[in-house]
Design goal:
The chain is mostly helical. The chain folds into two domains: 1-51, no CATH class; 52-89, no CATH class. The chain has helices at 5-13, 35-46, 55-59, 62-70.
Length: 104
């Protein structure tokens, strides 16, 4: 489908909110504050069974998901492919700017 430039701009601007308005993605029973309780109540009213939690999915680390998708283990050493990688230290990001030393 091809549209003229004027029609494209008109359709694009239909998605732009006026100044002072904010986009609300979820509201009602999908709002963040009490979503779990409200969805449970919706299931109850509709007579739906309570979904069973997937225990194996919650216990999997991102490295396990990567290995399942690619077949390459992130636990193995990338250089020799025999040793096991282990977390030695976790470096946290710098939260403040480094001091500026005046050398004049």
């Amino acid at each position: 489908m091809t549209v003229s430039a004027d029609e494209f701009i008109r359709r694009f601007l239909l998605h732009v909110l006026p100044e002072g308005f904010h986009h609300i993605r979820y509201y009602g029973f999908l709002g963040n504050r009490h979503r779990a309780q409200k969805l449970a109540r919706c299931r109850e009213l509709l007579g739906m069974p309570v979904p069973e939690p997937l225990d194996d999915e919650f216990e999997k680390d991102y490295r396990d998901h990567y290995e399942a998708l690619t077949g390459v283990s992130l636990y193995q050493c990338p250089a020799c492919r025999r040793g096991q990688m282990a977390i030695v230290e976790t470096l946290h990001g710098i939260t403040t700017r480094p001091p500026i030393h005046d050398t004049s």
